[in-house]
Structure formats: structure tokens, C-alpha cells
Hints:
By secondary structure, the chain is an alpha/beta fold.
Amino acid sequence: MKRKIVSALVCAAMVATMVVGCGSSSTTTAPAEDATEAPAEEEAEAPAEDAEEAPAESDASNASGDVITIGFAQVGHESDWRTASTKSCQDVFSAENGYDLQFVDCDNDSAVQLEAVRGFIEQDVDYIIIDPIVSTGWDTVLTECEDAGIPVIVIDRTIDDSDKYAAWVGSNFKTEGLAAGEWLKAYAAAKGITEINALVIEGSTGASATIGRTEGFKEIADREGWTILDSQSGDFTQDGGQEVMESYCKSYEGKFNVVICQNDNEAFGAMDAMTAAGVSYGVNGDVILVSFDACTAGLEFVMSGDITADFECNPLAAPFVEEVIKTLASGGTPDKEVYMVEHWYVNEDVVPSIEVNGETQEMTVVTQEIVDAQY
Ligand code: GYE
């Protein structure tokens, strides 16, 4: 019992950081239990219930009372974000909550991921969750899932060449890239920086997170006439970020004043490379350092001023996935797209808010309290 209450509270804290509707077509109900930690305007959207009534604890077995079997083909273990995503699923789809979670770490290998999904079909699991490593090449295997009568729920990254899945829960990556660009424009103006020469460290090639963040930032860069000196993949890893930045420091010595890393782990590697090369970065440095994800360690570096701005990607999708499963189990039709909420973090209050896609959103100055509450 004690464990269950704790898990309900953890779940409550997780959903408190999410709301719905930040993407164009999203409509859904947040599976919130207790939204006490949610920022004021988001609480309204999350229907609060007692922690004891957490979705993760209730009717977690199928109609016949059996354990629900879920196959989860996870991308890999490349980043802090990924670790948080995996933990979110393992916490919600636990044996205690009535699930048998078949978890496969696909180690960033698309062939392994397709095999994992086919393995789940063989096992005749009740539901399949896929976080697609790449956004294309899915229609055949999704047709196989459909033929087997197994609903697929896509999380995080999108599938762009098939719609044979029940629902997708994730983030709007292009919006994240646009936000980084709009913030940079306002920040540079406030600081009297008139020329932007940017280096981009992209995520894994073919991932929708990479494609969206790249497109979004480039759209603003093109509009503003900024120079993107180079854009190479760091594969969403710390080693990858460090390696790419080491080579950038040699090739573009003295020529760049902005580095955009498409996730926090790449930023950690890039910081090491810049430090080694004698390049200063962050709020007091020569280089504006922008990152995405805003995991705990990323926010710590925002607070210390090493990362200038960090655009959140919320990995805690599992409670929403559980809602989709419950809707399907009761014969309903879930919303096809469910968007996570993203907060945008900075060290200093130079740019209070920015407008993206016609909507104004505040920039949040990181405090220790925010760091402590982050996943
Ligand atoms: O930003 C990165 C992870 O797909 C949004 O993948 C995710 C990305 C995330 O490795 O850290």
C-alpha cells in the first residue's frame, strides 16, 4: 500500500509537468491525479483527483482481469532524456500496476527495432509501444501489427510514412527549434549582438526530433539572415557532441558565437570540448550555448550559467499512454495526437517571453527548486 501511494505521488508529480494542447491538433485529457505541483495555468487543464485514484493503480488489468502485456521498443539508452523516458514507462507499466512490460532497448539500431516489434507480434502482446528511432520505413510492420489485431501506440518521435497506429504521445520538435530561434533573436537584440554565426550539433540522423529541431531553428536563421557555419550529427550522445565540437573548434576557431546542441548530453560534450580549446561559453562567455531536453543535469548547467538557454522536451509520456490504453480497452477511440508541454529555461531574465506559432510563452529562470523537481 505504501508503495502504491508513493507511486501515485510520483505519477502526480510527473503529470503535473504536462498539459495538453500545445500542438495544432491536440485534444486530450491529462491523466492527472493530484496537480498540486503544476504551474497555475496548467492546473486548470489537468483534472485533479485524489492520489489514491491514480490511473496507474486502477483497472490496470484487461476485461478478464488478466495482466496486460505490453511490448515497448525503446530507442536505446543514449541520453538522460532516454533514461527518464524508460523509467516513466517502467514505473507506470509495472507488475504492481497490473502489467507485464516486455522492454527492448534497441540501441539506436532500426533493424533491431523492427525485429523487436515483430517479436512482440509473435508473443501476441496486448499492446505495442514504439519510440521510432527513425521516422520512415514503418508501414509494413505496422500493417503486420494491424493484421494481428495489436494496437500500436507511438511515443516521442513520430512515424511519418504510416498512420496505422492508434495514437501518438510526444512533443512538437519543430516548435522547439522555432522557440530556440525566436529566443536567440530576442536575446541577441537585448545584448547588442548584431551578427550570429552559429554551429549546430544535430541529433541522430533520420529521427523526427532531429528533423524538427533542425527545421525550426533554420527557419528563423534564414528569416533573420544568420549564418549557420556547419550542422553535423552528434547522435544525441555526450561523446558525439564532444567529438563534433572538437572538430568545430579547430575548423571555425574565432568564427562562431552560437552553438546549438540538439540535446543536453551533446551540450555536456560540447562544453568539455570548448573548455579544452579555451573557448568561453554561457551567460558570461563568448559563445551563446543553447540546448534541448532540460533534464536535471541540463538545468543545473543553466543555473550555473554554462548553458544559456534550454528548451524542454518532456519525456514523461507513460501516464498519457496508459490513458490511451484504457480508452482502447473500453472500446473507445483515443485522440490520435497527444502533445506534452514544454517549458523553456534560461539563467537570467533578459527575454521574459517569446512568441512562437502565434502563441506567447514565458521563459522560465531556473531556480534550485525547479532543478530539484525535474526528472
Ligand atoms: O531529445 C534526446 C534523445 O527523441 C526527443 O532523443 C528524443 C530525443 C531527446 O536521445 O536526448
